[in-house]
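Dig into these lines:

——
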Amino acid sequence: MSHKAGFVNIIGNPNVGKSTLMNAFVGERLSIITSKAQTTRHRILGIVNGEEFQVVFSDTPGIIKPAYELQTSMMDFVKSAFEDADVLIYMVEVGEKDLKDEAFFKRIIHAKIPILLLLNKIDKSSQEQLEEQVTLWKEKVPNAEIYPISALENFNVKEVFNRIIELLPDSPPYYPKDALTDKPERFFVNETIREKILLNYDKEIPYSVEIETEEFFEDEDIIRIRAVIMVERDTQKGIIIGNKGAAIKKVGIQAREELEKFFGKKIHLETFVKVNKNWRSNPFQLKRFGYNQK
């Protein structure tokens, strides 16, 4: 019997639920999720294996107009999603009427590959509103198959997954059959800590932060981790640490609990805060953190 395999890349505006959808497809919490824009900074692969198929899902940053070098690099990850996709998922939510970047939109409507337009968060809409939205998007993206879904409630997700399998080309697997993602353990440590910072701090603080895991030692029953939280200014360092270290302690506890679930082991986590001035606009620093791949 033939084997199917391919890349299914998910794009859309910020906060549309791309990460929730990929986690639902994969059955693991690979992409961090918060209500804040720009939660996803990298392109993350999640791999689903069956006896006769392998689907490589790709979660990309939300489409924005870049304001600084980091955001430009984030949009490069989105552009790359067009280059290797066998199926493209264009995700919108009820109430949306366009994509934030006209050039991306033109690429979608002229794409030669199958396009699945997923209308997310239908659990928050009426039947009348849903019908209006389906009509609107059929006119805007005539080359797309439209599926109303709720990624959070898992509504219609299985139907979309089954359709994806049908659309995949015949191909041997691209990754080993026991692979779940292309990212190393340290990446998920970094992302988990960053997620807790996004949840616990407001204004510019979460967007000025990058995490670097300096040590990751795994024993039989415990993983010992040392991670550095990078900020751009001294004032931000003080805010991250908080009064008598209370704020960073809270982040550390929440991250440790999440990582123990993810790795299925006891975690010893040490966190430190360092100032790395203007790292978001520094090409050398961005490359070091895995953004500028050119």
User: Anything to note?
Assistant: Residues 246-263 form the longest helix (18 residues). The mean pLDDT is 84. The first strand starts at residue 4 and ends at 12. The CA atoms of residues 9 and 83 lie 10 Å apart.
